[in-house]
Amino acid sequence: MKSTASLFRALLAVSMLAGCSSYRPAPAAFHKMLDQPYRLGAGDRVRVTVFEQDGLTNTYNVDQSGYVSLPLVGAVPARGHTAQQLEGAIADKLRQGYLRDPDVSVEIDRYRPIFVMGEVGAAGQYSYVPGLTVQKAVAIAGGFTPRANQESVDITRDINGKVITGRVVTSDPLLPGDTVYVRERLF
């Protein structure tokens, strides 16, 4: 009877320790996204330059429906496209009766924001800058609270139109539009 109770306590302790090991690798798609070219989405702002056309050269926002609205040509689909693909789409629209051989350049002026919530000093929406990691985002959001789990966080990311949540370490890079959730530690 005494050995059964000891065995039960040992199993309970092992299961509790297994629950404390909170790091589960994120899905493989999380890391594959880092090696792919950046795809535009709602909330991004692009700088469109049309050579020798000052009236068309400007900064434009990608709207909620994923389009960029330019003078003359109207709405051009941008969501899910790279900057180079958007250049081609704008040039194609301009060739349809407006310019003979348009030279279009598109660069990202501002990325869509990231969101940091949970056990941080000041949860909220923050600007994304290239090279941003989880640790840097937490620092921008006022740092960890005393109760925060500082080893890993949950990230919610839109991957090819599917919203996926995965657990990553704090040194992992972020992408525009990510939501970072800092959990409370158990002990």
From TrEMBL:
Sequence ranges assigned to domain Polysaccharide export protein N-terminal in this UniProt record: 35-108
Assigned keywords, A-Z: Signal
Record-linked PROSITE patterns: PROKAR_LIPOPROTEIN
Entry GO MF terms: polysaccharide transmembrane transporter activity
Alphabetized Gene3D superfamilies for the sequence: Outer membrane lipoprotein wza domain like (3.10.560.10), wza like domain (3.30.1950.10)
Signal listed as a keyword: yes
A Pfam entry, by short name: Poly_export
InterPro entries assigned to the protein according to its UniProt record, in alphabetical order: Poly_export, Poly_export_N, Soluble_ligand-bd
Span of domain Soluble ligand binding: 114-163
Region forming the signal peptide: 1-18
Protein name, per record: Sugar ABC transporter substrate-binding protein
